[in-house]
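Title: Prediction job returns without error message
Component: structure pipeline
Severity: low
Priority: P3
Assignee: unassigned

Description:
Job completed but the reporter wants confirmation the result is attached to the right record. Sequence as submitted:
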Amino acid sequence: MIAALSALALLQTSPATLDGLSWMSGYWLSCDGGREVSETWSDPRGGVMAGVTVTIGRSGRGSVEFTRVATVGEGLAFLAQPGGIPATAFPLVEVTANRAVFENPDHDFPQRVIYSRHGDTLTGRIEGTVDGQAQSMTWTYRAAPLNSRCPT
């Protein structure tokens, strides 16, 4: 119990670094639900991790979301830019060796962006409320060679 509390205190007081999020780096592919979603994260370099998500829907049409993790103010933040709109910042509020939680309670939806990794699986999740109702979406990706596609 004391060890767990000490680890929690260390987690809360140690400043997070981009290198601590390097486990997100790579090419990740999801072929669930009749859609192809690839998410690519650069390794940490020059003070930023760059991400891009390409989604190909059942219709065969694609969409792109640009993301990044970078220092904003005094800490790290996830910056999402879906459809080319101005970026929304979600400050990092929790980080472990394989999980990161970014939160912006003032954003309409989502208010939380969560990434976790277990082996060759990366999970992305968004959470929040819409009209007072809890909502969430989860994507489960597998590590894949760069530019791999889902089987047709």
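Comment from assignee: result matches the submitted record. The chain is about 10% helix and 55% strand.
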